[in-house]
Amino acid sequence: xxxxxxxxxxxxxxxxxxxxxxxxxxxxxxxxxxxxxxxxxxxxxxxxxxxxxxxxxxxxxxxxxxxxxxxxxxxxxxxxxxxxxxxxxxxxxxxxxxxxxxxxxxxxxxxxxxxxxxxxxxxxxxxxxxxxxxxxxxxxxxxxxxxxxxxxxxxxxxxxxxxxxxxxxxxxxxxxxxxxxxxxxxxxxxxxxxxxxxxxxxxxxxxxxxxxxxxxxxxxxxxxxxxxxxxxxxxxxxxxxxxxxxxxxxxxxxxxxxxxxxxxxxxxxxxxxxxxxxxxxxxxxxxxxxxxxxxxxxxxxxxxxxxxxxxxxxxxxxxxxxxxxxxxxxxxxxxxxxxxxxxxxxxxxxxxxxxxxxxxxxxxx
Length: 365
Fold this sequence. Notes:
By secondary structure, this protein is mainly α. It is built from 13 helices and no strands.
């Protein structure tokens, strides 16, 4: 899978990054030639100015290789910060999930506008890609609203684990719309994801009425589960659209459509629900600011990690999201995940990592 809100995306609700094995930009730039007209460049002598002299040449400046494991460290930091963002969403008490999405869109808009002006990409985009940009914005913002609602209505670990089913939906939609190959391996990963979701939801007709083990009523737990699955579906569709557009659309322009449509969609939904209210609690205001700032930091670290490290190891390290979610749930909410949830987490994380490594292996052939 090629994620990124996402912004995301790699962050929940904003999958906007493209996994790549390329080196970071600028890593292959050659050092500027030294000297004035008639003088030999660096590493050349007076007797053979046209080519480096093996006996007298100064050693060329070696390209600076990234520290081994630095990309994985960046990915680990991004996983920790993404989990912190989820924790802050869960901790907000008196603000609706849709309103949290609106605040986040406003925060990101303040960052994206100067970037678009600096890069001189405009605010509309290429003529043939505008419909895809609008779809990316609508689907991405809907995905964000759904996962925030899931965080507020179900255990943090359960919602986080279900988001790992996104690669399965991406493979299915890419097979349908982009005519990409859907292999037996993809079918196997799909079955693993379905099994994981069933273990987390624990429907009464399979597990009995007393097996849910959650403090919320089962109906509320089910609503949160459906929202988390909806997030995975819309994220998968968003990733397919981003793959369709490729590199023809600037990254910040894609985020611009995401925040504009997200703000518009959130405002309309809040008007219909009548849920708009400014947070009166100081902690809620602090959490809203942290959701924007920490989420942005997580996206930066994930981007750096993808620039340095290969896609497969990054996908494995991203599984630390689940570990942090379990830890935060136990520490801050005193909720010990059941063995059903642990089993579902193993199935979903294995499916996500397997799908990512399988795609990476195919692309590296």
